[in-house]
Amino acid sequence: GKFMVLNNLGILYGAFNNEEMALKYFNEALLVEPNGPDSNNLAITYNNLGSVFIRLKDFGSALKYHQKSLEIKYRLNDTKGIAASLNNIGALYMEMRNADQALVNFKEAYRYARQNDNKQALIYSSINLGTLYYNSGKRDDAFTVLKEGEAVAETIDAKIYLKDIYKLLSQ
Fold first, then answer.
1. Cα angle: 144, vertex 147, 152; to 5 degrees
2. Rounded distance, CA 10 to CA 124, Å?
3. Can you tell me the distance from the alpha carbon of 27 to that of 49, in angstroms, rounded to the nearest whole number?
4. Other C-beta atoms lying within 10 Å of the C-beta of residue 137
5. How confident is the model over 86-138, as pLDDT tens digits?
6. Which of 6, 34, 54, 66 could cross-link with 50 by S-S, CB 3.0 to 4.6 Å?
């Protein structure tokens, strides 16, 4: 429907670094979403808005929209979406140079992914945690989570993630 067209136009404009038009279409999509305040579509659009604001370096707005997306994911009990949103918020805190808050969010994403057997989110979370641990001098912790991520990535043949894991493990 109209919502998906507007949302996809926002994604397309964002892909071409036209953030102003991306924001226009995402905001229009919010106005026509027919499924109410607990809609997954709304959560996706909030996430997309957060991503645009990250690219614009407007971290306050980015955090606001990523948190709105997370709140909906919690209400919907969307465990995959929760893990993804927590990883996004963790990455945002890394951009903001706030390693403590990044760690809180990455750990929670990792926990959610493990608890719900979400292999892709577990791999992604282990890379995020491993990177954060490595950068803060906690090599043993980095090694532990990266090896778990590696084992899971191998079971689903996730070569794109294995490349990142091997790179981190080799440092």
1. 130
2. 25
3. 8
4. 8
5. 999 999 999 999 999 999 999 999 999 999 989 999 999 999 999 999 999 99
6. 66
Map tokens 């892709």 to a residue: 120
Query: Structure pTM?
Result: 0.88
3-state secondary structure of 138: coil
Rounded Cα gap, residues 29 and 70, in angstroms: 18
For residue 121, what is the DSSP state? H
Q: How far, in Å, CA of 126 to CA of 109, rounded?
A: 9
User: What's the chain's length in residues?
Assistant: 171
Q: How far apart are CA 35 and CA 39, in angstroms?
A: 5
Distance CA 8, CA 142 (A): 37
Q: Which of 87, 104, 106, 116 is nearest to 145 (CA)?
A: 106
Write out the two tokens for 92. Answer: 């945002």
Residue 118: both structure tokens together: 């979400």
